[in-house]
Amino acid sequence: MAGWKARRQPFAFAALLPTLVVLSAAVDTLAPGDRLEDGSSLVSSDGSFKLGFFTPGKSNFRYLGISYNQTADQTVVWVSNRDTPLPDKTGVLSISTNGSLFLSDSKGIIYWSTSSTRLAGPVAKLLDDGNFVVAGTGEGGYAWQSFDHPTDSLLPGMKLWTDPRTGFARNATSWKSDDDPGTGDYTSFLDTNGDPQIFLLKGTKLVWRSGPWIGKGFSGIPEMWINVEFNSSFVSNADEAYYLFSRRSKSVLSRLVVQPKGVTEHRVWIESKGDWNVFWSGPRDRCDEFGYCGSFGVCDANETPLCSCLQGFEPNSPDNWKLRDGTDGCRRRTALDCQNGTDGFVLVANTNLPDTSMALVNENMGTEECWEACLRNCSCTAYAIAAIIDGGRSRCIQWSTALTDLRVYADGGQNLFVRLARADLALSSSKRKRRRIVTAVSAAAAVLVGILLAGLVARFIRQRRKSSNTVVLGNFPIVKSNAWKEEMSRSRELDLPLFELAAIAVATNHFSNDNLLGEGGFGPVYKGRLEGKQEVAVKRLAKSSSQGVEQFMNEVRLIAKLQHRNLVRLLGCCVDGEERMLVYEYMPNGSLDSFIFNKNKGALLDWATRWRIIMGVARGLLYLHQDSRLRIIHRDLKAGNVLLDDSMNPKISDFGMAHIIPGDEIEGKTRRVVGTYGYMSPEYAMDGTFSVKSDVFSFGVLVLEIISGRKNRGILHSDPNLNLLAYAWRLWEEGKGLELVDSSLGYPISMAEVLKGIEIALLCVQDLPEDRPEMAAVVLMLGGDRAPPPHPKQPEFVAARGRSEDSSSSKGPTCTVNDVTISAVHGR
Ligand SMILES: *[C@@H]1O[C@H](CO)[C@@H](O)[C@H](O)[C@H]1NC(C)=O
Ligand SMILES: *[C@@H]1O[C@H](CO)[C@@H](O)[C@H](O)[C@H]1NC(C)=O
Ligand SMILES: *[C@@H]1O[C@H](CO)[C@@H](O)[C@H](O)[C@H]1NC(C)=O
Ligand SMILES: *[C@@H]1O[C@H](CO)[C@@H](O)[C@H](O)[C@H]1NC(C)=O
Ligand SMILES: *[C@@H]1O[C@H](CO)[C@@H](O)[C@H](O)[C@H]1NC(C)=O
Ligand SMILES: *[C@@H]1O[C@H](CO)[C@@H](O)[C@H](O)[C@H]1NC(C)=O
C-alpha cells in the first residue's frame, strides 16, 4: 500500500483484496444481479477507463469513481458519491431490474442511486470515452449517463450545458481539496445571458470568464485560437447552449477540470513525460481576474501598472489608481452627444471582449450595419464584430452598459469600438497607448478600419504570432517595406521635398495637442512652424491600414502634380519608420463647415464671401475634372474638406480618396464606396458607380449648405428638416427660395445670386447623373454667362426612398449622419 501513497499518486485504488468479487477485472458491463464490490472494477472495452472504488490522498473514505486506466497517477474524472463517502470498504454497486443504480454498504445503507427507467432489460456499461451509461437492450438511448452529471471534469464529448429557457445547467464543480472530492467552492458554468460565456464562479461570485465564442475558441482564451489538436465546438440556440471539445486522435488524453485552487484547466496527458500538461487555464494571470481594472479600465499584462483607463476616460478614484488598485474603474471625460450625432468610436485592438452577459447580439450583421446600429442607438457604448471566421458569419455585439473586464493581448484578440464624444477622439499622444489603442480619429475612420479588419481577419490570424515593429493597427503587418521604398523613390522623382521627422516634430511641438488642428480623413492634422517660419499643416497618417498607406501614396502622387489656387498645396512629405506625413500650406481659417454650421461664426461669412467660396470650389472642382493633366474625381467633397485661407479663399483638400480615371473614361465602379453620407449621389451610394457627376452632386449639396447654413443629414431621410435637398426643392418650387437663406446672414444679400445658386444646386442634385450639368457648365452658369438654366427635376430618389421600402436598398446606406466620412463595401 505504501507505493500507492507515493507523492505523485494522490489517489489510490484499492489493491485487489481477497473479497468475494462477482465480476472479473475485464468486464465493462453491470447487469441486474451483478455486484461490483470494493476491490473490483469495470474496465471499458479498449482499456481506457475504469470504474471502481478509491480513496483520495489522505482521506479515510471510499468513493466510487471513473479514472483513466492508462495513466499512472490514476486520475479520477468522475465521482458518484462525492458528498456521501463510504466509511469502509464494504461498498457495492448494483443495478436493479428497473434500471436504478445503487451504491450501498454491507448494512444496506444507500449512499448514491439513480432514478429508474422503463427501458427493457437495462444494463450499466462503461464506454470507451469514459461515459458510464444505463441502456436498454433495444434502441432508445441512455436512461442515465455519467456525462450528464459532471463532477469536476469534462472529458472529450462531454458538454458543459445550459438550458437557456429554464436556466438548468450541467456544471463542473471543483473538489473541496485534493483529498476530498466533495462539492467544492468553484463552479464552471455556461452563462447564456447576452453572448454566452463560460464563467468560473466562487459560490456566486464571478472570478473568471472565458469571453464569448469567436469561432475557433473563446475570446478570452488565446491558446484556443490557434490550436489544432482539439476540435472545440460551441452551440447556442433557443433550446440549449453547450461547449464541448473532442480529440483528433484517441491516443491524446485530455480533460477540462475545475481545480480546488480556483482555476479551470484544460489538461493534456503527455505520455513521454508521464504527466499532465496544462494547455490553457483561466484565470492565468491578474488581468484574467474578473473586473480587475473596473469599468472602462483596460488590463495589459505587459504593462506596469497593469490597469489603465480607456482613451477618453479617467480614473474614478485617482488615489486608488496610484496605489495600483484599479477596481474603481474609470469615468468618461466628456459626456456623449448622441443627439447631435457627433460621437465617434475609438478602436481598441487585440482585446478579450468585455463582459458580454448584458450585451446585445445580432447574428449576420455586418461591420457597417453594426457600426451604424451602435451609432444610432444612444444607449450603445461599444460594438464589436465577432465570429467572422466561423463560416463567414458576422455577428454584431453591442454593449449598452459600462464595459467591464476588458484586457488587451500583445497580439491577436478582437477589435472593440468604444463610443466617445468628439472631444475625446483625438489621437492619444502617449506612445504606450498608441501601440495598442489606436485611435480611429472619427467615426469615419473607425468604420473604415472596421471594414478593413473584417476583410483582413483571416490573414491577421495567420500572422498574429509575428510581432514586429512594422505592425500597425490591430497588429497585422501590412506595411511591405520594399514596396514602400519603391514608392518613395518614385516620389523623389516627383521633386517633392522630403521632410525629416525630427524637423516636423520640432515644428509641431512634438505633435502636441495644442497644435492639433483637427482630423482629416486618415489622421490628425497639426499646425506647425518650419524653421524658415513658414506655417504649415501636417497631416499625420493614422497608423491604420494598408488602405491608408495606399491612399497616402495616392494623395502624394496626385497633389504633387496639382497646382490650382482653389486646391490646397502640398509642400512635401515625411516618411520615417511607421510615420507617414503630408505637409501642406497652412490655412489659418480652418474649414468651411466650422463657419457655415455655426450661428456665431456663420455671421462672419457674408453673402459676397459665400458666393466667392461657391465660385472658388466650382473652379477647383473643374480643374480636377478637366483642366489638370489628370482626370480626377474627388469622391469626398464636403464642407469639411473646403479650407479657407486668410482671405477666405476656398481651397479643396483631402485627396486621399480621390480617384484618377484613366484615359477618356468618365465613369468608374468600385466595390468600396468611400465618401460622406449626405454628399453621396444616389448611384454612388447604391451601386458604387462614380463619375465626375457624383462630385457634381456633392457640389450641389455643398452649395445648398452654404446658402442655408444647414447640414444635409442624409439623402435617404424622409424628414424634410433633415433632408435639405427635398426641403430646398419644395421652397424653390413654391417660389419661396429666399426662405432657405441662412438667418444669421447679414445684409446685403444678392437675391439674384441666391436664387441662381439654389437653382444650379438643384440641377446638380438631380437623381440621374446624365441630368446633372458638368462642372464646366456650372462655372459658366454661376458666372452668369449663360442663358437661364433648365428647370431642375424634383429629386425623386430622395422622396421615394423616404416613403417606401425598396428591397434593393437593403445593402445601401441609410445613415443620417452628415459629418463623418464613411466607407462601405458593395457586392460582397
Ligand atoms: C489497464 O491499464 C493497464 C496498465 O496500463 C493495462 O496493463 C491493462 O491491460 C489495462 N486494462 C485493460 C483491461 O486493458
Ligand atoms: C426500482 O427498483 C428498486 C430496487 O428493486 C426499488 O427500490 C425502487 O423503488 C424501484 N423503483 C421504481 C420506480 O419502481
Ligand atoms: C450551475 O451553476 C449555476 C450558476 O451558479 C446555477 O444557477 C445552476 O443551478 C447550477 N446547476 C446545477 C445543476 O447545479
Ligand atoms: C470536429 O467537430 C465537428 C463538430 O462537432 C465535427 O463535425 C467534426 O467531425 C469534428 N472533427 C474531428 C476531426 O473530430
Ligand atoms: C448639441 O449641440 C448644441 C450646439 O452645439 C449644444 O448646445 C447642445 O448642448 C448639444 N446637445 C447635446 C445633447 O450635447
Ligand atoms: C438600443 O439598445 C438597447 C440596449 O441594448 C436595446 O434594448 C434597444 O432595443 C436598442 N434600440 C434599438 C432601436 O435598436
Automatic annotation (TrEMBL):
- Transmembrane regions: 437-458
Q: Tell me what topology the record assigns in the membrane.
A: Single-pass type I membrane protein
Assigned protein family: Belongs to the protein kinase superfamily. Ser/Thr protein kinase family.
| Matching Pfam families | B_lectin (PF01453), DUF3403 (PF11883), PAN_2 (PF08276), PK_Tyr_Ser-Thr (PF07714), S_locus_glycop (PF00954)
Q: What GO terms are given for molecular function?
A: ATP binding; D-mannose binding; protein serine/threonine kinase activity
In this chain the Protein kinase domain maps to 511-794
Keywords in alphabetical order, please. Answer: ATP-binding, Cell membrane, Disulfide bond, EGF-like domain, Glycoprotein, Hemagglutinin, Kinase, Lectin, Mannose-binding, Membrane, Nucleotide-binding, Repeat, Serine/threonine-protein kinase, Signal, Transferase, Transmembrane, Transmembrane helix
Which superkingdom is the protein from?
A: Eukaryota
Query: Organism, per UniProt?
Result: Spirodela intermedia (Intermediate duckweed)
* Signal sequence, start to end: 1-26
GO cellular component terms, alphabetically, are: plasma membrane
Per UniProt, subcellular location reads as: Cell membrane
Question: Which top class of enzyme applies to this chain?
Answer: transferase
One GO process term, biological-process aspect: recognition of pollen
Q: Answer yes or no on keyword rRNA processing.
A: no
Which InterPro entries does its entry note? Bulb-type_lectin_dom, Bulb-type_lectin_dom_sf, Kinase-like_dom_sf, Pan_app, Prot_kinase_dom, S-locus_recpt_kinase_C, S_locus_glycoprot_dom, Ser-Thr/Tyr_kinase_cat_dom
Q: Could you tell me where the Polar residues compositional bias lies?
A: 809-821
**Which reaction is recorded as catalysed by this protein?**
L-seryl-[protein] + ATP = O-phospho-L-seryl-[protein] + ADP + H(+); L-threonyl-[protein] + ATP = O-phospho-L-threonyl-[protein] + ADP + H(+)
Residues covered by region (Disordered): 785-828
Record EC number: 2.7.11.1
Do you know which SMART domains this protein is assigned to? B_lectin, PAN_AP, S_TKc
Positions of the Bulb-type lectin domain: 27-147
Gene3D superfamilies for this protein: Bulb-type lectin domain, Phosphorylase Kinase, domain 1, Transferase(Phosphotransferase) domain 1
Q: What is this protein called?
A: Receptor-like serine/threonine-protein kinase
Annotated ranges, domain Apple: 338-421
